[in-house]
Amino acid sequence: MFEFLTFTAAKLQTLMLVIMRGSGLLILAPIIGSRQVPVLVRVGLLLVLALVLVPVVGETTAIANSTAELTVLALKEILVGVLIGLFFIFIFFAAKVAGGLVGYQIGFAIAVQLDPTSGDQVSLIGRFWDLMASLIFIAISGHHLIIRAFADSYLAIPPGVVVMNGSVGEMVMKYSAYVFVLALKMAAPVLVTLFLTDVALGTVAKTMPTMNVFFVGFPVKIGVGLLTIALALPLFSYVLERAVDFLDGELRTMMLAMGQV
User: Fold this and answer.
1) What's the pLDDT tens digit per position in 228-255?
2) Residue 1 pLDDT > 50, yes or no?
3) Which H/E stretch holds residue 239?
4) What's the rounded Cα separation, in Å, for the pair 114 and 34?
5) How far apart are CA 151 and CA 48, in angstroms?
6) Which of 159, 153, 102, 99 minimizes the C-alpha distance to 130?
7) What element of type H or E holds 123?
8) Is residue 127 a contact partner of residue 113, using CB atoms and an 8 Å limit?
9) Is the CA virtual torsion 131, 133, 138, 139 positive or negative?
10) pTM (two decimals)
11) Helix, strand, coil tally for the chain in percent (to 5)
12) Which residues, 6 or more positions from 1, have their beta carbon under 8 angstroms from its beta carbon?
């Protein structure tokens, strides 16, 4: 139990800094930070995490002597939380990019849908894979990984002790580029199948010049593409699970770099 009347100034600052880091996490974190989760639920989760972690992390050693210093410390904590959430949401960015590539090849380039979680227009296949990624992420307890990464961040980065250097920026850029690699891995089975379908249709067009391949090929590519998407779902799940494990490990490496004084 917390005895707020006996809280020291350092303990109050620690509580505030923990809340700031958690706020940054909920800005970008998938599932638990989604816009579809009610604001009161997110605020309640944030307060519960803060109250549980404050006795564990101890008092901050970076005591702020002015409002300006406290503001700087708070902004650094928010940035740490944002970076934790960013590493996990990379997977969902990749699913949307992969869906856009596949949708364009199938012929769904014009068919877009509003994504309520981001407010952006995404392709139908991208939206479908985003939903599938959410279900798989929950099934493998990805939301627990987010909370555990948030709690473990205090082992490497104590409250108020955040180091921003060039290596951290390089890692963020490196794994931002990983989104496109991951998207290609997700979309590869469908893209290869559609490419072979185009080759087959081109061969038919050469051997049967009187046949209107355009009208025949459009529904054929849609059918083949949707069938391949359905058959490739186990591979999609495998790629996503491996990506979660990889990014979770790399996130811990980045947190160690941010905690080096």
Assistant:
1) 999 989 999 999 999 998 888 888 888 8
2) no
3) helix 233-258
4) 15
5) 12
6) 99
7) strand 121-123
8) yes
9) positive
10) 0.82
11) 75, 0, 20
12) none
Task: Tell me how crowded residue 54 is: count the other CB atoms within 10 A of its CB.
Answer: 22
User: Which residue is associated with the tokens 């020291």?
Assistant: 8
Cα–Cα distance between 165 and 199 in angstroms, integer?
50
Q: What is the pLDDT of residue 167?
A: 76
The predicted-structure confidence for 107-126, as pLDDT tens digits, reads as follows: 776 666 666 666 666 778 88
Which among 171, 186, 189, 194 has a CA at the least distance from the CA of 244? 186
168 neighbors 258 (Cβ within 8 angstroms): yes
Check if the beta carbon of residue 133 is closer than 8 Å to that of residue 91: yes
Q: Which of 175, 146, 133, 152 is nearest to 25 (CA)?
A: 146
CA–CA separation, 62 and 65 (whole Å): 9
- Torsion (CA) 53, 75, 150, 49 in degrees, nearest 10: 40
User: What would the DSSP string read from start to end of 53-106?
Assistant: HHHHH---S----SHHHHHHHHHHHHHHHHHHHHHHHHHHHHHHHHHHHHHHHH
State residue 118's pLDDT score: 61
Q: Of 133, 80, 95, which is closest to residue 252 (Cα–Cα)?
A: 80
